[in-house]
Amino acid sequence: MTRSEPFVGRADAVADLRAWLAAADGGTGALVLVGGPAGIGKTRLAEAVTGPAAVWGRCVDDPGAPPLWPWRRVLRALPSADAEVDRALADLDARDGADLVAARFRFVAVAADALVAAAEPAGLVVVLEDVHWADEASLRLLRHLAGEIRRSRLAVVATYRDTGAAGPLFDALPELLGRPGTESLRLAPLTEPDVRAYLAEVGRAGVDAVDALRRSGGNPLYLKAVARSSATGGGEAELHHLVRTTVAGLDAGTRELLAIASVLGEEVDAHVVAEVAGRPDGEVVAALDGAVRAGVLRPAVAGSRRFAHAVVRDGIYADLDQGVREQLHARTATALEHRAEPGVVAGHWLRAAATPDALARAADWAEAAARDATRSLAFTEAARFLGLALDCRRRAGPRDGLAALLVDLATAEYRAGRFARSLGHAREAAAATSDPALVAAAALVVRDTSAPDLLPELAELAAAALAAVGPGADPAVRAKLLAQSAAVTADYGRATEAVGTADEALALAERSGDQEALLDAVRARMKIRPFELPLPERLRLGTLAVELGGTGRPLVALWGHKWRLDAAFEVGTVPVVDAELAAISALAATTRLPLVRWHELRLRASVAAYRGAFAEAREHNRLAWELAEAELAEDRSAVGMSFAFAQQLAEVVGDPAELPDGYDELLAIAPPLPITVISRPLCALVTGRRDEARAAYDALRPRLRDPDFIGQAPGIAPNLLPLLEAFEDVETAEWLAKRLAGTSPVGSGGAGTFCSDCSSSWAGRLAALLGRHAEAVTLFEEAIAWDTRLGARPYVVHNRVRLAAGLAVLGEPARAETPARQAADEARRLGMPGWVRDATALLDRIRTDADPLTGREREIVALVADALSNRQIAHRLVLSERTVESHVRSVLAKLGLANRTEVAAWAHRRGLKPDRTRTPPR
Fold it and tell me: In the predicted model, is pLDDT for residue 664 greater than 80?
């Protein structure tokens, strides 16, 4: 883009930007954020460095702008990328009942990949102007790109005004700036030498540079105006005055056209201006070209003109009388109804005079814009448009149709993650209608959230809807409402009460044949107490969810695979575990949804740790943590799962250093769910804060007998065991042992956060705590068999240590020594420092308590420890060398040692020393 005005004072910024663009061309892409106040030269810098091959997109300050507006302009210039994105949207639109929240993530991933692919092999530079006006959908795509861009040939230069402090961009800036592929530039005001150079280049060398700097503040746009005018003053007020002066020099007809242009926005189509003005196209084009020559406008794409700067347009718009402005917006809206995006039309009607007709038309167009935004998966923008429509309907007078509009608004807000606001509008919708179908629709908007502050209102709304539809309602509708009621009741912690409701929902859904109802009922039933359902039923429901989910409902399919994976762990079928994990990985690759990928990483971390691949497990946990921070930030429990995994890993390997900082703070603000309550004392215990752990455990003990507490999640019982053992809570151990007695054996408690050990181990630990050591030994032997078959190497270590301890208590040190030694060796191989210490200490204690050696053998061991050879020992003890060799072999066999070095180490631990008083024969 050719510019006539000088470009001064940006040598460092130019060098930096060129270096980043060159790196992108070489395969190391970058997002460059260029910030500064209006007029500082952000766009001019981008024009000077990027060159004519760059693709430009501009954000606009217009409430009616459609979502993804700047990206649409970019993608339109890249046919290959645009085609891929269009195909993705068409594919998603074709899926009835698809999870639109999930689809939005997929669309963002597809669009980002299409842009990265378009940069191959020659590189691509995209310039996004004025991203301080970007909608949330555009920023979501930018955030996703920032995570991928480093490994591409794509460079994105995004300019923004950094003088604001609110809005979607400023919420996203910390995350954007924290990405490894993001660079930032802030353009400072020009200096006095810069101003002097500028004045010389424009032929104004006689102007006092110091005064010009003072009046312009070093802002290039203001400096240009100061240099071209003899007016005095400074700052934006002076600029507006200068703009008025420039416009005043144009004829009245051109000024009228500029007023229309200021209403249209920063970039205007001459034909639209002509239609609004009611003047011939040729006349309008000539007048606008005159405005270009006057410096008010500048050429843009064919048929369009742009204001020289946003501040120029703002100054002209601000000078319009309110009545004139409203009239021009109404005329503009009428002109655009057959050619512009619905949101743009709605925005103009909103700023026209607030007559009932104008408000009704604004509402109609805002609703149309919301439908477009939903198809683009821009749910925040859809909610914004529906909010505008609701406000217009209310101001227009008649209230007919408000309930349906409120349900639509609540749905858009829920999809955008604004749960509290969504629930408020859903409740308002239910209160505003007597139509049972609308009440039911309102009750089913907000689902699958356990936020404590929302649960009472969710329960109240579900009950109101069930009463409104009555027992004779459509079975599918009633099944959905019952499933919602059951899920909310369970989230309250009353799972026992919810079971009957969930069973009724499932039976109704199956009779109705409605797939949506069946999915809701299945998810509710499995959410409550999946491990109490018979295994064949769980497998049936898992298969059903996979079949009904597919790629159109990927989150439903994910749950089905997880249910089947947990069932495989329960019965110990390793091939099925691996097959279901592979299926989840394939689902993540196919849908490319962050939430599915997060679940895949969580499961892979859990399974890797279960098998003793701790480095792999840590890496998967780290990736899951990063993904949660970047893409699932609205759900803090996603990050909390990585903390919970680290806590479990710390216990499994016996190293509190595995637990990162900040977990206590996270637990302190977490809702009081049973697993959270258990985790607080457990975290303190793992990190050595025993008194704190004891106090927290004593506080939760009264809740343990509540069946809704101990039975709500599979991880409660295994996490309770270390606390029972640490504080020797025999009474609770007795109660828990009775509760677990008679249940079917379990290979592992599942892979939700961390794969637990088998139920034989749980029962063995309880038996040991209760003093039933013979029973405990049998159970630990069963546990070792389970864990060996499932490949759970760390738990084999744990249970061998426990088995050895039990055998030692029973007075069988010879049997105890082998599992203790095996546990120590395996713990060293796997990297389990705490269990190495425990196994070694136990082994030493066993060997200390049981010395099977004869007196002669102990005498020989002491001499071996003194580094004497068999010949020297024979000479010292007046024995044959063959006899000494026989004794050494016996020692090795009795002690279970491999060589003389281990014999010497054993002797040193026992404190055995040779008899120095004995004199060897001469």
Answer: no
